[in-house]
Sequence to fold (308 residues):
Amino acid sequence: MADGYGTGRVTDDDVTVSVDAGSDVTGTEGTALAISGTASAPATWSVDDAACTIADPAALSTTVRCADEATATLTLTADDGSNPVVSDTAKLTVANVAPTVTLPVTSTVEVGKAWSLTGSFADPGTDTWAATADLGDGSGAKPLALTGKTFTVAGTFAAAGTRQVRVSVCDGTVCGSATTTVTVTAAPPPTSTWPWAGFFEPVDNVPTVNTVKAGQAIPLKFSVGGYRGMSIFAAGYPASAAHSCASSGPTDAVEETVNPGSSELTYAVSGDRYQYVWKTEKSWAGQCRTLVVKLADGSVHTAEFRFR
Fold:
């Protein structure tokens, strides 16, 4: 007999009908909760909350399951077909359960690249859910769309490092959350997308040091695997820098020079070669210099010179 309720008993001269709904029942939504009563005649269970279902109403020992939180009354009614119907009740208290969110443990993405992952959540209740995602980048939690009980978190990260991304799902009463670790890696140095060939004669490639008279104009000839337009150099290049001649390698004279003038770039379809006329300065006499040719694809190519 539940607290606050009585055991029903009806008697006539020959028959005693009794019923007891047993103890009050507590549990959580979505869980099958055991209920057990006694009766001296055929008996049936009922519950006054539409969210709750009794597995076998005609069994004295059975289970009740509620799809949502509830405070309800369980009633066990006995009827022997002759005497008045007798009932007894027990209190049913079903608590809400927070959603359980599942995310991959880790993921990796490059700075500035699109990142996303798919997660899910479980909730035994028939609730209405809302979700948020915090990318851990200081921008705060933002609404996250749900598709059934799944979702996709997406974004980009502006700086390398480790981010703790948190997803929270709320059922209107309580929230559940989970975090995933995102490792944001630095972008790799650019790699050449142009197949480089060169330098061609009259310039020798490193480690050979090209010797030439200061002030001469030197034709730099090379190929980048086809015509790439006439804006193939990175800003500020070609450029050169002086350095000590003490560690210079083997030398070779530049056999061909061109008439001094303004530096210019040309392309010859025949032979698939660019030529850049590098005008040197007379003041470089006695210096050793490294010529640096940086292309628009990010690649860097050098040659060594000693000026006399």
Summary: The chain has a mean pLDDT of 90. The first strand starts at residue 8 and ends at 11. The chain has three domains: 8-95, 100-185, 197-307.
